[in-house]
Structure formats: structure tokens, C-alpha cells
Specification:
327 residues, alpha+beta, 3 domains, five-stranded antiparallel sheet, four-stranded antiparallel sheet, 34% helix
């Protein structure tokens, strides 16, 4: 076992010393953004953090509106819990009314990350690893993320269109729960209707392994970005991009999230991936985490205990239960 070989069960918690617990669990999404320098921040979509209080909702909404206006971005904006995973509580907020509804459903003292909406819809998950003694990193996987949609025919409801779709027909529960207010809506002929905003597999998104699209040019840009985030070595980036060819050249993309040590290489969720491939990928990730943690231990970083990890997990689990339904 890796823990026996390295004489520690919690070495992965120092794989990314830049953030608490390597971003494993119970850690703010914005922690790694805060650790980024000017070069890295140029690639990250602007964000602001807001802590909800028990003040009246209209007052909170006015505060948030002023916050995002000062940051230079307007509605629609993306609202997401600053602590959480798998798309929990993520919503596209189109106006002041929707903002008030989102705030009313959010737990008091919870922290919300408001982020500018990218002008690009296409999304990809890129897994990047860089060992501390090596200047160049490695892109270990690249996975395209598709948010399913239906196209209206002018006479069928959203529920009927979804039921007739091969993917959505198998996932009526998650789609129906999130779209129940519009389930009987007639979609005009030829009009596409996006069934979810958050491209999370657990919420119904479709993933496609695109390792063949990994390029030296994209890697070179990621090396520059992570050279500007000291002591951060292992992550999956969620990226919005303009065009796949341009992305491969290392241009015209936005980082919307930098996930921590608990993130998996999402190509394992591609429908053509075998169980054996998925297990090998996960085992390789654990091996990498322990190797990074071991190297960082020699630099003086000490891993925290299981009690701290459990407390962080319990804290996040309780928060997630209180979040609004995601889009």
C-alpha cells in the first residue's frame, strides 16, 4: 500500500501546500485563485466572494449587485458556493429577481463565489500535474464536457422533448427536478433549449475523452500559469474556450475553476472507458498524490491527521445539504 510505503496515510494532503488540505475537501474554491499571481489571474475569470448574513434579502441583493458592478461584470453572472463540489448549488443568475431567489435559498454565513460569465459555451476538463523539482508539467488528460440540450418542434413540451431524447430519457429525475417550473413549456420550432448549466457528470452532463487534442502549445501556457501559483502541483482545471483548434494553440480560454487534490481525471466517465481503464487511472492518481506529498514532506511540509480531514469533510457535507438546487 502507498500509505505503508510512504509511512503516512495523509501525504496527499500536502500535494498542494499552497492551499489547506491540498484542496481535498472543505476548502474554499477561491483559495487557489487567491494564491495565484498576476500572470495566472489573467487566465481566470474574475470572481468576488460574498458572505451571506441574516439581513433582509433585498438588502443582500443590493450588496451583491454593488459588488459585481464594482468588479466590472453584469448580469448574467454565475453563482456558486465557495465550498462544495460536483456542481452543487451552481446557478446562472440572469437578473436581480433571480439573485434574490438564489440568496433566499442559500444558508446564512455561507460564502458565495460570484463569477463573470464566459462568452464561450464550450467546456473542457484538463488534468495537469507538475512535480516541484521539474519546470515542465504534464497534461495527463483532456476531456470535453457537453451540457445536453433539446431542440423544439413547436408542439412538444420540454418534458416530452426530454423523454424522447436518448440521454435525457434515462435521466428524467435530475432533469425534471431542476426544470420542473418549465417542464410543460412549449419550445418553439428550431429553438435549442439547454437542459442544464453546470457541466457536472453527476448532474447529467456528457463527457468525451479527447486526449488526442493535448498539445505542446497548451502545455506551455499551463506551465506559465502554474509557475505563478507557487506550491500548487496537482489539479483538474475546468476551462471555457472559444474553439478547440485555438485552445490547442494555447489561446482564447478562461479558467472557471481549479479543483483540488480530490478531483478525478474525468475521462474515466467517458462512456467508452472500461472499468479497468478507470481503475488504472485512479490508482495512478493516488500514486502521483503520494509522490508529490512525499517530495513536499522533504521540503518541510507536514501532513495533517485524519481527524482534521474528517472534520473538513463533515463541514462540507453539512453545507452542501443546505445549498440551492443547481441549474
Amino acid at each position: 500500500m502507498l500509505s505503508v510505503r510512504h509511512r503516512s496515510l495523509t501525504l496527499p494532503l500536502i500535494a498542494n501546500p499552497a492551499v489547506p488540505l491540498s484542496g481535498m475537501v472543505g476548502v474554499q474554491k477561491s483559495a487557489v485563485f487567491d494564491a495565484a499571481g498576476a500572470v495566472a489571474r489573467d487566465w481566470i475569470l474574475p470572481w468576488r466572494i460574498y458572505s451571506k448574513t441574516n439581513a433582509p434579502i433585498p438588502e443582500l441583493a443590493a450588496d451583491v449587485a454593488a459588488l459585481i458592478d464594482a468588479a466590472g461584470f453584469k448580469f448574467p453572472v454565475v453563482g456558486k458556493p465557495d465550498i462544495g463540489c460536483r456542481g452543487a448549488g451552481v446557478k446562472l443568475i440572469g437578473n436581480r429577481t433571480e439573485l434574490e431567489a438564489y440568496l433566499s435559498e442559500f444558508p446564512v454565513e455561507g460564502e458565495i463565489q460570484f463569477q463573470r460569465l464566459s462568452q464561450w459555451d464550450a467546456e473542457v476538463g484538463v488534468f495537469y500535474v507538475r512535480h516541484s523539482h521539474i519546470e515542465r508539467g504534464e497534461i495527463t488528460s483532456l476531456t470535453l464536457k457537453y451540457a445536453p440540450y433539446v431542440v423544439g418542434d413547436g408542439f412538444s413540451t420540454l418534458a416530452e422533448l426530454a423523454a424522447a431524447d436518448p440521454r435525457a430519457g434515462e435521466l428524467q429525475h435530475p432533469y425534471g427536478e431542476r426544470r420542473k417550473a418549465k417542464w410543460e413549456l412549449l419550445i418553439p420550432a428550431g429553438e435549442p433549449y439547454r437542459r442544464l448549466f453546470s457541466a457536472s457528470h453527476s448532474r447529467g452532463a456528457v463527457f468525451r475523452d479527447a486526449a488526442a487534442l493535448i498539445s505542446e502549445e497548451l502545455l506551455a501556457v499551463l506551465d506559465q500559469i502554474f509557475a505563478d501559483i507557487p506550491s500548487y502541483h496537482y489539479d483538474r482545471l475546468d476551462i471555457k474556450f472559444k474553439d478547440i483548434g485555438i485552445l490547442r494553440s494555447g489561446r482564447d480560454f478562461h479558467i472557471i475553476e481549479i479543483n483540488g487534490a480530490s478531483s478525478e481525471s474525468i475521462n474515466i466517465w467517458y462512456r467508452n472507458a472500461s472499468l479497468g481503464q478507470a481503475l488504472r487511472t485512479l490508482l495512478q492518481q493516488y500514486h502521483t498524490l503520494f509522490k508529490l506529498g512525499s517530495a513536499n514532506r522533504t521540503l518541510g511540509h507536514e501532513p495533517l491527521g485524519l481527524k482534521t480531514l474528517f472534520s473538513a469533510w463533515r463541514f462540507e457535507s453539512q453545507l452542501v445539504k443546505q445549498y440551492p438546487d443547481n441549474d
